[in-house]
Amino acid sequence: MSPLPATIPALVRTRVRAAVRRPARLTPEEAEARTLLLRLCSLLLQYPDAELATARPVLTTTVEALPPSPAAEHLTAFVSWFTDQEPEALEQHYVEMFDLRRKSSLYLTYYLHGDTRRRGMALLTLNQRYRAAGWNTDGGELPDHLPVVLEFAALAGPGGGEAPLRQHRRGLELIHRALTDANSPYRHVLAALLTLLPPPTEADRAAVAQLVAEGPPNEEVGLDPYGTYGDGEFAPPGTFVPPTPAPPTRVPPAPTSRTEGPR
Q1: What are the phi and psi torsion angles at 99 (to 5°)?
Q2: What is the spatial distance between Cα 216 and Cα 128, in angstroms, rounded to a whole number?
Q3: What is d(CA 131, CA 128) in angstroms, rounded to the nearest whole number?
Q4: Is the pTM of this model over 0.85?
Q5: Buried-state track 189-212, b at ≥16 Cβ within 10 A, e below 16
Q6: Is 233 helix (H, G, I), strand (E, B) or coil?
Q7: DSSP per-residue codes, 68-112
Q8: Buried-most residue among 22, 48, 60, 240 (CB within 10 A)?
């Protein structure tokens, strides 16, 4: 994935559209602001390694400069926590939320297709969408990993670029619910993202409730029922193991004029 834009100081002065439905006829300034929000969400949902931890001052400054909007409020709440944590604590919390809990895994096709053959086809289709748009993810991460999907949405725009996000809205709702139940500050990043998508329908709410109760579909061949593993989160051992996270998007260092260092 590509670095955070060098034009952030100009972008944060634009008007951020607090969208509640699919955007149409965005002005160039609104499109740039929406791109910035998507890229911030992508960065903040990546593994908080040393590089991302070092970039916290510039990320915080960027978020705090956003004009008032529901998304900006959620991101401000998140970076306040994110900046105050020790790097080791950030890493531990990230692994606990996204690697050890299936209900808040960041691999979106899992919620729609579970451990079925259809999931493999969905991953292939997503990869083909990226290639058709001229984007190569370098194979460092599965194409349905949420930070990758967000980066594509930022690069390709609110039409086809955001289509995968709209397609997986129910999974995003479930991740947000799971993070909220766990009282994780990452719930704010998901909440910010959800403000940019169409509001959920009654069918969406019913589907999320069914996912919570039953888990995603499976092939129903030689597997124990969902909910019988560990803390009751979806699948039994061996049915879905998230791959090792790819290195996060590179971000620029804080401007040299700033005296504040990483906290």
Answers
A1: -100, -30
A2: 24
A3: 5
A4: no
A5: bbbbbbbbbeebeeeeeebbeebe
A6: coil
A7: S-HHHHHHHHHHHHHHHS-HHHHHHHHIIIIIS-GGG-SBTHHHH
A8: 48
Side chain identity, residue 70: P
pLDDT of residue 4: 56
Q: Quick one: tokens of 156?
A: 């390709």
Amino acid code (one letter) for 90: L
User: In the numeric block, which tokens belong to residue 214?
Assistant: 């039953």
Task: Kindly tell me if the per-residue pLDDT of 19 is higher than 80.
Answer: no
Query: What is the SS3 assignment for 184-218?
Result: CCCHHHHHHHHCCCCCCCHHHHHHHHHHHHHCCCE
Residue 8: closest CA among 154, 132, 192: 154
Q: Which of 11-20, 118-127, 155-164, 206-215 has the lowest mean pLDDT?
A: 11-20
- At 23 the pLDDT is 47
Q: 31 vs 157, 161, 164, 261, CA distance in Å?
A: 8, 12, 18, 31
Yes or no: say if 62 and 12 are a contact pair by the CB < 8 Å rule.
Answer: yes
